[in-house]
Amino acid sequence: MTAGGHGLSLPFARDGVRCDPSTTEEHTMAFALAPTMATRIADLYRRMEQAYDIVARQLDFTCDGCPDNCCDSYFQHHTYLEWAYLWEGLKALPEARRKLILERAADYAAKCEEALANGERPVVMCPLNEEGRCALYAHRLMICRLHGVPSSLTLPNGQGKTFPGCPRCQELTRGRAAVPTVERTPLLRELAMLEQELLGPQRGVLPKVKKTIADMIILGPPQL
Ligand code: SF4
Ligand code: SF4
């Protein structure tokens, strides 16, 4: 199957998300997230960043000079809203640049498939990473915004989860009696609420999202 105007071969259409001929340049450019929804997710993302910055400042933590680049970590993302907002960013890029990103995404997907088939967790640089920088910084997803500093989360069943932060941050917090954390729960709750609003009656009908950024790029904007 090909992706029409993208000119890429799409080896898969995972999790029931359609990958049909409407995933073309025309479909891409016709796609639009409602401006109010785009504003609200942008505002939520801004508050995630603020929460991250507060903790980073308290720990005197930055990514400056870090020899690692977490953008090669294998993550999957779970909302149509983030997928749609990512595409708002991709759409705003010049077509030639978007095509390059699509090519890198196809390469990323192939490498991940190979690693997964070998029972390994993929370590492949994100197709949006360009010379160490995020090509869609303002549209990067929640996990990209919260990864790094310690954080905590209470699941809907009441179970608590903690995340110690990246290895560099863990070095910094080792031995500390009290470690500041980003409380993810209200941020995730708000994201879930916006997702429900976006999906409306399609909630529970559409397949659950479990996609890498590359999947989201290859498949084109979500068909809502
Ligand atoms: S989040 Fe941590 S590991 Fe990743 S680049 Fe920043 S300092 Fe390095
Ligand atoms: S979207 Fe941007 S910040 Fe997130 S992994 Fe890719 S390059 Fe890194």
Account of the protein in words:
- This protein is mainly alpha-helical and 224 residues long.
- It has one domain.
- The protein is 45% helix and 6% strand.
- The chain has a 3-stranded mixed sheet. Strands 1-2 form a two-stranded antiparallel sheet.
- The relative contact order is 0.22.
- The chain binds iron/sulfur cluster (2 copies).
- Residues 63, 66, 68-70, 147-148, 166, 168-169 line the site of one iron/sulfur cluster.
Quick structural gist:
The chain has 224 residues and is mainly alpha-helical.
Looking at the structure, what is the overall shape?
A: globular
The percentage helix is: 40-55%
Q: List ligands, each type once.
A: iron/sulfur cluster
Low-confidence stretches: 1-22
Q: How many domains? A: 1
* Beta-strand fraction estimate: 5-15%
How does the major sheet shape up? 3 strands, mixed
**H/E element sequence:** HHHHEEHEEHEHH
Supply the helix-strand structural class: mainly alpha
Query: How many H/I helices?
Result: 8
Instruction: Let me know the average pLDDT.
Output: 88
Radius of gyration: 18 Å
Could you give the distance between the termini? Answer: 21 Å
Strand ordering within the main sheet: 4-3-5
- Count all strands and give the number: 5
